Amino acid sequence: MATETLTLGKALNTGLRRALENDPKVIIMGEDVGKLGGVFRITDGLQKDFGDQRVIDTPLAESGIIGTAVGLAIRGYRPVCEIQFDGFVYPAYDQIVSQVAKMHYRSRGKLNIPMVIRIPFGGGIGAVEHHSESPEAYFAHTAGLKVVSCANPQDAYVMIQQAIASDDPIVFLEPKRRYWEKGQVDLEAPLSEAYPLHSARVVRPGDAVTVLAYGPMVRTCLEAATAAAEDGRELEVIDLRSLSPLDLTAAYESVKRTGRAIVVHEAPSNIGLGAELAARITEECFYSLESPVLRVTGFDIPYPAARVEEEFLPDLDRVLDAVDRTFGW
């Protein structure tokens, strides 16, 4: 097994490179993805190696990027669209929910839309307005779309290739605050043997509380689990990985053992993923629960100015406070 230590951003870059190498129908398109290599350098070097017909710098027009990609997908290409920042996706929302999500259904299954919409999402980088959104609930709520989020370099490398190879349209959420964090990546394992794209994974076993997270909050929850262990509480942390469809088999099994569940995400709590997760766990595990399912989330306000964003984002202390509260019932 050949492994390398890569940042999450470099793992994505390497995964995109593999996809371009393996399928001539794969096209990358977006604002500044070519010569610049993207604002986060995720597509760095790809236009130089694959040419400007496959790594395409587009106008600053998200609606145009997605609309063009729909036509390319219908014609048999596999476009990978980069939305430069999460808050820029809304001009393309009409195309995504009205065309991308519905074309397969509208054509009675005759047309597939094999495209990936990459969105750097979440906060923690000290950015200005429209650069730190968490729009996952909009897309997870939309039938016809699949939504996934990676949390570490290994998953980033594998999941981006799996998403591109899928015949379904996939919104691929990348935790931008984690782009520079490093981890071991197996570059030689066959994609056919990789962990399934739409399956959750237990990333830390425990028996005291089940903690569900995805994307940027997985590391936060792992840090909280390490701290909780010092007080004798072993948290079981589950990385959901897929937000639509949801894979909750591991979560149900865990909650039936622990009797307690906490959901953590950056997005505001109101009608967020946490609400859906809490509802499903309550329905499935009602007689096993020792306390209500708790949520640790961002607040129900527009994303705040950078100087106070750490007050908005869930952190280790807020997760540990929820752990204390769940034992108070």
Task: Strand order, main sheet: write it out.
Answer: 3-2-4-5-7-6-12
Quick one: how many beta strands?
14
Radius of gyration: 20 Å
Quote the average pLDDT: 97
H/E series: EHEHEHEHHEHEHEEEEHEEHEHEHH
- Tell me what portion of residues adopts beta-strand conformation: 15-25%
Overall geometry comes to globular
Biggest sheet layout? 7 strands, mixed
What share of residues is helical? 25-40%
- Residue runs with pLDDT of under 50 for 5 or more positions: none
Count of separate DSSP helical elements: 12
Distance between the termini: 47 Å
User: Structural class given helices, strands, pairing?
Assistant: alpha/beta
Mind explaining what this structure looks like?
The protein is of the alpha/beta class. The chain is built from twelve helices and 14 strands. The protein has helices spanning 8-22, 46-50, 62-74, 93-100, 103-106, 136-140, 153-165, 217-229, 249-258, 273-285, 309-312, 316-326; strands at 3-7, 26-30, 55-57, 78-82, 116-121, 146-149, 170-175, 182-186, 201-204, 209-213, 235-239, 242-244, 261-268, 294-298. The strands form three sheets. It has a seven-stranded mixed sheet, sandwiched between helices. A five-stranded mixed sheet has the order 9-11-10-13-14, sandwiched between helices. Strands 1-8 form a two-stranded antiparallel ribbon. α1 runs parallel beside α7 and α8 (217-229) crosses α12.
